[in-house]
Fold this sequence. Notes:
The chain is α+β, with helices and mostly antiparallel strands. The protein has helices spanning 2-48, 55-91, 98-107, 112-130, 132-142, 153-170, 176-182, 282-285, 362-365, 377-383, and strands at 257-260, 266-268, 273-279, 290-296, 301-310, 320-321, 327-331, 342-350, 356-359.
Amino acid sequence: xxxxxxxPEEKAPHRRRWARLYATYVTLRWVSLLGSxxxxxxxxxxxxxxxxxxxWARVVLGAAAALAIPWLLRxxxxxxxxxxxxRARREGAQPRRAQERSDRGRRVGLGGSWFLVTxxxxxxxxxxxxxxxxxxxxLRRRGDWFLGEADGWLPRRYRDGVSRLGSYLERFDLxxxxxxxxxxxxxxxxxxxxxxxxAPPPENFEGPPPPPPVRQPVWFHPLAGPRRHMPPSAGCRFxxxxxxxxxxxxxLGHCGVDMLRPTGTPVYAVYDGVVEKLVRDEKRGKLAGxxxxxxxxxxKVLTSYVHLHxxxxxxxxxxxxxxxxxxxxxxxxxxxxxxxxxxxxxxxxRRTERWKKYIDPEPLLMFWRLPEPGPAPSxxxxxxxxxxxxxxxxxxxx
Length: 398
Ligand SMILES: [Zn+2]
């Protein structure tokens, strides 16, 4: 017994080192294998999610890209290399032993897991470096599609990470048609200049009156701070699945973003402009319920505020509004069937009377100033009298 105990003690440090090295190797192998499979699954399903609405079809697509295709490729490569080596042998010296022939396939190598890691890493490099703009946009919009509405510590961390990665890859630049009119909206908004008190002219002053201080319009988020409200999940973002015929730029149908807020939360005009459409009659608005459309920059930019609970009585067609100051309505769920109260907010570029194109407002909302918080939602609801019906035009794309 004593004799047996001394031997392992001497070998132990040596063995322990090897065991540790082996454990590190196995861990590295598993982490890189699972990590590369998951990353390819997320990236490919986010990209395909722009045209595929079905969950199962997305899962099949992701599994095919991350597992099936590399596996088939490996089989094909093995075949190819084995055939090449076989031919080389036949042309050269005859194989000396039968054993050598049977070993051929094994010596060709292409170890399963490392091959999968290599192919998946190459796929990721191709998608993230070669098509970084599209991949980034898809990750930002749909990188969390499989989480649904899940909201916990881990889903929140995941959403935050994937949206950061997506935004980094996307390096958002405006669609070409929006560059001319929205260049100022796609960068952090300047602090609003304090109101300038103009001193009255001296009594014996003669000449033209001094010009009034020029108001520099600034883009504002439609919902007040202090928290910046953004679409919380893939189903609320631009391009998410919605039934019915929709403009092609809206991918699977959602032409704006949905931001969940309690009923009665004030909604602000995002920029100086005029009221272009106004529907107070829920039935007339159909799926949009009560809604307001504002025209900015001589009508070249349109912003829509949909599913409103109420619209102030003094808001009328053609009326001028001020960005971040004029409350154009309150958050509600008019026109929806089962949804929680939310603001559907959309931005469109208009060139001609009939040519209109929606753009994704989410990257812009990141930059826009937050309006100063106004009264509590309950006070706003109480102060508003029941809405009356006014003429307006229904839109078909809530
Ligand atoms: Zn919506």
